[in-house]
Amino acid sequence: MLKYLNKFKIRIISLVALVLVFVSCFALANAISSETNEVEASENYNFDSVTYDNDEVSVWSVNANGILDYVVFKVHDSWHADSDGIYRHHNNFPKDNYSISIPGNVTGISSEFKIYREYWQWYDGYSWYTVNGVSERPSRGWHLRYLLSNTHIGNLPINVIKFPSSLTSVGSRAFVRANFNNTLFDYNDCANIKTIGDNPYVAKTDSTNRQIVAWPEFTPLLTSVGASAFEDMLLTEYVENESFNADGIQFIGDKAFRSSNHEGLYMQGLKVVTLGEGLYTIGDYAFENCRKIESIIVPENVGNIEVNANAKIGKYAFKHSRLITVIYEAHVLSEGLFSDCSSLQSIDLSTEITVITTKCFEFCSSLTSIDLNP
Fold this sequence. Notes:
The protein is built from 1 helix and 27 strands. It is mainly beta. A 9-stranded mixed beta sheet has the order 1-2-6-12-14-16-18-20-22, with no helix packed on it. It is elongated and about 85 Å long. It starts with a helix and ends with a strand.
């Protein structure tokens, strides 16, 4: 009898120890889930305050050319039996948001870059399932699946993305997904960037807060900025975005730096834009409503189809900007080019000017000097 009592005592002690371990783990999990790295937008924004969750990423999908296509987070969601007894997956994230620092082997971000999270599914051991296009009968139990052939799994919120110095390209519509609705993008180390695709951040709305909060002082290798590349993305509250210096740039797409709300929330913070002699295209509405740029030099080759068959100077390219002085070396003034620039006082035009189109200086109420220079 004593022998059995001792065994019983040992089992009770083991059970109590197991319960204590479980309670400790549960408390730790709750503590972790209560932490966030949310960063408020402000003039004093400091990326040193961000804790990056790279240890939570189980897969960095980088192709042979260094293009990052997707990442997979090790986020374990809630699985439990509903009232009907069937186990179902529930989108519960341990933290309110996540931040990542892209590895140094990445040279580009793919179009429609994706954020996935680990997906676990329960199998009964005898039914057949189609997983990623393959029919199979998994063994009974939980199996880890990445639903890469379908859609992104839930909207895992990304708070900050820091890009490496190796980055040379950002694909069109790269950050179109809802994961990035309130992401802050740190390009501070990306002086080697060469191309930015069309509309990488999608149109801003009052319910989103996508923002570029750091950009290099000088990007000598940048040659192409796609349509809406920076539209509503360089706002006034971030002092880091005062200048855009890309003297090697050749192409600026439609609405590339446009601000959609010229006096309100979406006011572009750019003050200085430096354009190089190799520039041949400035798209329609490219700098519309940029209310902090006071002067600019438009190079001679802009719109010159002899330099490039696709060259153009877009209509209303500087509409409602706050330009005061302009040196214009190109040979064509497009429709509405400086329309509504009420602060514009003087413009130097090339003697080689061949076309001045309608509404070019419409509502330029402060314009007092137009000089022709050889």
